[in-house]
Fold this protein.
Amino acid sequence: MKDYYATLGIGRDASPEDIKKAYRKKALECHPDRNAGNPNAEATFKLVSEAYEVLSDENKRRIYDQYGEDGLRQGAGGGGFPGGFSSMEEAMRTFMGAFGGGQGGGSIFDTFFGGQGGDPHGQHQGASKRTSVKVSFEEAAKGTEKELSIVNQINCKDCQGSGAKSKNGVKACPTCQGRGQIFQNRGFFSMTSPCPNCAGAGQVITDPCRGCQGAGRIKDKQRITIRIPAGVDTGMRLKMNGYGDAGPPGGAPGDLYVDIEVEPHSTFKREGDDVYVELPLTFPEAALGCKKEVPTPLGDICRVTVSEGTQTSKLLRVSGKGFPNVHGRGQGDLIVRILVETPVKLSDKQKELLRAFEELESPQNQPNKKSFLDKIKDCFTK
């Protein structure tokens, strides 16, 4: 009598998840591809898979618990054990099914190292598409909508994506018996690959649809509207679910990825969610102080106060007047950089007044100049 619970190292009260977890562990440990020097590896692997095949099936497990292995044989009509494996190919099907991998191609090592397979009957997701869109600085600040034209593969309306003229025009693939994949033993390696006859679909079309010539899909030009949220920046990508190519029969459509490019602005410069703007001041305005109106990237006006004696490059921060955060986490600031302009093309009268002003200046009027001269003196006295 085979003790399937002991084979998997679990108790008789094990849950379906416990059974699956134990099988995965045992199957990986004893798989022939990992035990090339062990002549008993293949037999052990078959037994472990056999145990899982029985205990993972609610009806077989109930019969086994009540009547043992003999009950299973009788349930098969005396024709042999229904969960047994006469070949590695059968055991491999259980192995790949338990891991959810290897479908539609690839080897068991795809499962070992995180590979992912598709649907064994060709129900893959359609191809995703990629495009780009330009938005102005103001549109990025406020959010906008853009209309794009794309060409997608869509399901044929005549056959609803099946590729066949009628239901009777689709037959199970004779090469893979409808599995969509074939198993191959190459020395110590057991590998699966898509069926070459049906390309992994598991079925073949004997009476193709006239509208799509059996492809199941046709090209279609579509115009779509993209909602661009406020706060986007160059390099960001929007994902539009289901706007890619239609999948093969029964498969979900792919997605559309939209790369954002924000055009630069002649006045504003963005850094993250903060926005910088330069504010030119005359010499008297910077010296005496003033109040100024400054535009914001959202199109309104804010008022800033410039204190007496403000120097070039001083930064004034206006809270909450920058870009909105694209993820809804508040809003950046507007940072005003002062730019004191030196007057040019002076008249004789202006020159005369400036010379008179210069005679009235004292060291306290120019603290930076005094500090600079002191540093020079220090260099020559050392």
Observations:
- The radius of gyration is 38 Å.
- Residues 76-83, 101-122 have pLDDT under 50 and may be disordered.
- The longest strand covers residues 144-155.
- The longest helix spans residues 58-75.
